[in-house]
């Protein structure tokens, strides 16, 4: 193992502080009892920082190149140095990629983490780690989604700090991401289906965008779905599956929640993106991702606590309108694709979201997290592109009590390893949980009723104002 990684790993001491948060929400628990259990669990949790009311999690599937965007090394040798030039930003002494001029203007509102690291080199393994804060047992390209793996961040928030305002706690869209297999970490897993996100797989940029997942099947009325006997029949059918019945944990509450959403004008109005003016929609960009960022603003504005926006359904590598995995393209196509597609899309959406939230007085209470599963190799490969590199990469945070115009950590001269203030993914997870009011030590219970901490890392307290 590289001595840089040995040093980093030696600094990470797992901690599992047991709490009395309770492990209820079992199969068959009625909604009133389940809600009472949640109230009791929340009352028994230790204090968290609680600097944010909402999190907008902008997941950049495929892995953006940190050394071509936010941690450029203009003095590095040929074969390492980016083909892009740097430009100055609104933060004195901080420069970023020349193709991010609008981002350069808003960097004085951003915390830039330049030393995020882990050891997973495959997309699904690394993404599972990035989406849950927990590493898989093995780094395997074939890692499959199972109920033994950890839940998504938003599902943990939904379990331990749920909304009481009539809005969903956790919303995710517009994709279920996958690299061959479905990427783990996008749902509630062993916490139970009732804590799954409200998943919307429609394009927010499409005409007539709404909530198709909440439409009832033909011939099924709301009254019929509300009928407890019908619900119980569905649950009993699931129970006949034997051991697989654990997948139905919380099914009754899941359907109850679906009914409430079907009947909620407040929820449907939150998704009514066509209410926005043409000028606002144009500023975000008439793209799936651009309108997804606008929808995220609408959702947190109306009280949703955790919004996951997936940049693309695939890692990329086949055409430009996909994820950030540009090393699959032949010869010199990485730089043109970054210049013509990924960087302009980033430069339009993220600054617009930051400024829009700020103008509405929502930025200080909304934590924006912009990240992928890893960065890119400092050295260019034979195709003049960069391969997977989890040992050091950049993550952007804005709002939610974080410092403005702050750079945390320093990478080495080629952007290969952290040189100062490393931030493990475990630490980033702990920091997000604490910011939204869930202590990292919060005890989860897996399918075997074993106590597991929500996050094993340490809160990066230096990034908060």
UniProtKB/TrEMBL annotation:
Pfam families: DUF1501
InterPro entries assigned: Alkaline_phosphatase_core_sf, DUF1501, TAT_signal
Entry superkingdom: Bacteria
SUPFAM superfamilies assigned to the protein according to its UniProt record, in alphabetical order: Alkaline phosphatase-like
UniProt protein name: DUF1501 domain-containing protein
Source organism of this protein record: Planctopirus limnophila (strain ATCC 43296 / DSM 3776 / IFAM 1008 / Mu 290)
